[in-house]
Amino acid sequence: MALVSDGRFVEDGWRRLADEETLPKSGKAIVSLARLEHALANLPAGVSLGVNLPNTTEPASLAAALPRLELIEIAFPAFADGRGFSLARLIRRAGFKGELRASGRLLADQYAHALGCGFDTVEIPDDIAGRQDEAQWRAARAAHARTYQRGYVAPGSILDARRKAAAK
Amino acid sequence: MTAHDTTLTRPNAPVTTYRYDDFDAAFVKERVAEFREQVRRRLAGNLTEDEFRPFRLMNGLYLQLHAYMLRVAIPYGTLSARQMRRLADIADKYDRGYGHFTTRQNLQYNWPKLVDTPDILEALAEVEMHAIQTSGNCIRNVTADHFAGVAPDEIEDPRPTAEFLRQWSSAHPEFSFLPRKFKIAVTGAAHDRAAVKVHDIGLALVKNDAGEIGYQVYVGGGLGRTPFVAKLIRDFVARADLLAYLEAIMRVYNRFGRRDNKYKARIKILVHEKGIDAVREAVEAEFAGMDRAVFSYDPAEFERIAAYFTPPPYEALPADSEKLRAARVAHPAFGNFVEVNVAPHKAPGYAIVTVSLKPVGGIPGDATSAQMRVLADASERFGFGELRISHEQNVILPHVKQDDLFDLWKLLDAAGLATANAGLVSDIISCPGLDYCSLATARSIPIAQAISKRFADLSRQRRIGKLGIKISGCINACGHHHVGAIGILGLEKKGQESYQITLGGDPTFSANVGELLGPGVTAEQVPDVIEHIVDFYLAERQEGESFIETWRRIGHARFKDVLRREGEDGAGI
Question: Model ipTM?
Fold first, then answer.
């Protein structure tokens, strides 16, 4: 697996915990949604907690956990399955401020979409990382420098730029 | 800067089409550059064919039966003379000298090469055109009434709304990987010429009791293998809330639309399975939960767009032209053209002209590059340089002075573009069928040609009156057969082409899916069956009644019966 952050392949400081594994005493651990309740109840102090969500998760079910989560990972079972984009929007809307990670077979060509919907990082399998190097991820992000939508995490909203130009 | 200032710098440009500003131009250029890079990465092996597919589709590029096909967007069907000429140039340089206008107000090239497509997209971008989202599982090119801005029955020109939606939906970060394609149509008139009720979302501009303009929103319409007429989800959405409301619908669809079966992934299935009330509840809950102010409608932006669609500088003219009256009398063929292909205009002394791309025996929707240039010239000489593409696969000249109609007709006639059959039995909508399409199971074009030849006599067609025939070469229904007064669906049965006939389809506000007439017939039998149906209608109709009105009055069973009996009499049906 490779992790893309800010257009670079970076080391992943998080460890994915299998459901039968005991909770660590320290460090950063990602648990499954099924394990979340248990992990929250038994979490040793000093451990950072993340959760891996299927893209069908109802965001309201996370309300109580949100303040204690430092990472939320949304699974993309296939790159053409865009449910994770909407789920990311809803999780951000619910006030989540931690790292939002897309995990699955996403392509560099979707990097701008992921960032736009509020993701910080993208975790991809090695075969994709092998064919799509850092340069391609950065280029794909730059290819969407301008967007028409507002309210999405996009630095180059055309509508805002127009407003600015009109105000001059 | 106002719309009128920009026309000064572009003398041949019409006043009533949206003009890109620097941001729009940069955006489209960015998409072309992105696609050029994607093609390069595909050829270099960075993207597999499976990975490349959605991105090429989002740029209009299909892999068809024999070759690639490029589908160019004509947003809300509006086109300038300059753009039409560019389409002709591309047809000559990169294709085989013609293009095919489709039911989605697009133009398709059937023979481009993959390596040429970035250059074609660049050539389009130079004239403010593109192929963005003409395919793929995203919000498709938004369509609108082809009589927008000129129809006498209009509440408001739907094109500013459509352009507003074009921008909002372009490369949308959240909705570019939907369960399936998503189609939106807008109408602003009392009569629906945009078929809004057979779209995923249909918008009808309405005025509420307080005199405010807003939108009636229909959702879940669509044809294909399971045709549905859209349901009303909201009676009135204020303009200020339009984008927010659409985002709410899209988000509900993106989250809950089925993804297990591509035939069940359309929003019409979600509406059908959950019921419109449950979908409405989910959409309203999402709408209520949003921070609308952040991304909602910007009135200044809407006004900026709307300014491009102000009427062209019409002359003050008498309502009826004496010159036109005299020419109609002196030239009966011209008189017939006016009777059939010319519609009333909201400005006195002007007319809307439908140029039929359905010559007798021709391929519906095809135009040669020479014809495209004639149309571009005609629009500049007689119509403020503006053209429209209708979902009936015809070209419209929306602002012709009645005084000029005769000269226009002569020009069109010389180019084989004056067939006086708009709305008549040979004005057939047809998909490309087995001749081009990799999905098709039967031919459509030859069927359309055979029917058109059978009814070649235009005076007989006028006696029959308005009658829409629509043909699809497979159950995906690109030819809209479900909503044809007479619909024809080509299927393959035991290695043989078989055609199912439906009656009573209607794409307007009174939308209706056609009913099956009986077992399928062979390709050779289709013209006979159509002729029997038409003859029966002529025998049964009352004064002034259209085909669909007669069918509704006397009922489907009578049509079914008479055909069955005639079949038994040896007519071979």
Answer: 0.97
